[in-house]
Amino acid sequence: MSKISDFVGNSARTNVETALEKARAASEYHALLSLTEERALERADAVDRGEITGRLAGVPFVVKDNFLALGAPSTAASKMLANFDAPLQATAVEKLEAEGAICIGKANLDAFAHGGSTENSAFGPTKNAHDQERVAGGSSGGSAVVTALDVVPFALGTDTGGSIRQPASFNGVVGVKPTYGTVSRYGVVAMASSTDTIGCFATNAEDAALVMDIMAGRDVRDMTTLPDFFTPKGSVALQKIGVIREYMSDDVDQEVRDQVAEYIETLKAVGHTVEEVSLPSIRYALAMYYIIVPAEVSSNLARYDGIRYGHRAEGIQTLAELYGRSRDEGFVTENKRRIMIGSYVLSSGYFDAYYQQAQKARTILINEYNTLFDQYDVLIGPVAPTPAFKLGENVADPVKMYLADIMTVPPSLAGLPAISVPAGRTQAGLPVGVQLIGRQQSDALLLALAASVEGK
Amino acid sequence: MTQISRDDVLHLAQLSSLQLADDEVDSLQQDIGNILGYIEQLSELDTTGVEPTYQVTGLTNVWRDDVVDQSGVSREQLLALAPEQQNNSVKVPKVL
């Protein structure tokens, strides 16, 4: 797979034309919802004329289609926004463009980023880069697949509870979910504001660090952003690493555990200390997540009302009917499930039992993480309990689909950085990722650690 | 398994401004029951005396100066996004 450095210094037009060609050749995977060809070629010519320079001059990339970006509609893979032409771009996209990067297309996702397989896209699922009968993972499935297929050297995603890490694991690429607040979310379709993060996919850890370095930093248009702390590290000292016992139980696929165990041996061989640790309340993390996130989803998605933008139903008489029918037609079933669960857990009489209880449980989980981080620098475990599952396998059972998030959700609830790094393949040839989790703002350390053992 | 009635589903749909088709009410009734059944296990966890966490990086109120920022987007561009417009306004059905 190519690296960012393979593109820098080439003719930007050639870079972009090649990427567009590869994107078209890979159309059977349905990883992209649109190509931004005209704008991409214009920008490529501007780079070639020397009008735009920077660390990513002429490097093609793809955005998940929940980032507002010019050149094609920003759909969030929903009928609600199928024809939404954004009047502005996300801060993350603007920062990459300022360094000369060129967006060539928009990647498929579960509608509004609700899902773990990209099967909830209103426009059809994305297929896994290594087995077309299997899911891409999700919700950032399209971004993972275009990176794995070498269409582009990096792609943007969003990760609320695993939406970058799990598809990265399923497709064999690096995926970064940064510390909460690292990258501005301005111009990105909001899902759950207390855990939404912006990150990336790349073919290697060093490239991922470069992209994160460019995107990170405070933005006056996103008040939750932290002052820029991200500085890529060239080398890494010996670390004390904890293997999360609860992540390595019999419930986890044997081949997944084997690959993670092998990665741990590689870390030990380099001299890092690895010991088993426990996070007892992690068993409740998925329940916390599926209370807190739907609650925030129901609030964030209230804005889609068919009035100011987005889909409006036809032939309606009353305002209530306009809201009700526009939302019914514009959302997929999973969106409706989450909105309604959110309405339930926030309604009077249930608020304390569900939402408040989940936020208290979150404190307990965070305290357990903090205790471990007093002694350990990095925690390690699988990304998902299985490799990529078959298309259609989990669609009929939402709870089963949610269980695929069981290992990625806990760091999200605590705002911790967590990355997914390729560990190896199963006998059937499916990629398996390993998850590295760190203290808040230790993002660069995780990537440097991954880079130090890459290919070993 | 948590039981949730068809009326409960219709009430949640109303709270959520969703006008559901009949067959979707049936499937959502089952799905929501199953999901609530799963998340209810959280009641086992003793959280007595624990403060809730709403913000994970310790930020408190972040202020900016109260000045108008057009964000580079014009009134015309925003109006053009509306499904229906009239007289420089967004058009909606009669409210009263």
Biggest sheet of chain B, open or closed, and with what strands and sense? 2 strands, antiparallel
- Low-pLDDT ranges of chain B: none
Q: What value does the Rg of chain A take, in angstroms?
A: 21 Å
List the uncertain runs of chain A: none
Separate helix tally of chain B = 3
Distance between the termini of chain A: 16 Å
Task: Produce a short descriptive summary.
Chain A is α/β, with parallel strands linked by helices. Chain A has helices at residues 12-25, 37-48, 91-98, 141-148, 165-171, 205-215, 254-270, 285-300, 319-330, 333-346, 352-375, 398-403, 409-414, 443-453; strands at residues 32-35, 60-64, 102-107, 154-159, 174-177, 197-202, 240-244, 273-277, 378-382, 418-425, 431-438.
If you had to describe this structure to a student in words, what would you say it looks like?
The complex is a heterodimer of chains A (456) and B (96). In chain A, helix 6 runs antiparallel to helix 14 and helix 8 (285-300) packs across helix 10. The mean pLDDT of chain A is 97. Chain A is of the alpha/beta class and 456 residues long. In chain A, strands 1-3-2-4-6-5-10-11-9-7-8 form an eleven-stranded mixed beta sheet, with helices on both faces. Chain A has helices at residues 12-25, 37-48, 91-98, 141-148, 165-171, 205-215, 254-270, 285-300, 319-330, 333-346, 352-375, 398-403, 409-414, 443-453; strands spanning 32-35, 60-64, 102-107, 154-159, 174-177, 197-202, 240-244, 273-277, 378-382, 418-425, 431-438. Helix content of chain A is 36%, strand content 14%. By secondary structure, chain B is mainly α. Chain B has helices at 6-15, 22-39, 75-80, and strands at residues 85-86, 89-90. In chain B, strand 1 and strand 2 form a beta hairpin. In chain B, helix 1 crosses helix 2 (22-39). The radius of gyration of chain B is 22 Å and the shape is flat. Chain B starts with 5 loop residues before the first helix and ends in a 6-residue tail after the last strand. The model of chain B has no long low-confidence stretch (mean pLDDT 92). Classes of the chains: A alpha/beta (456), B mainly alpha (96).
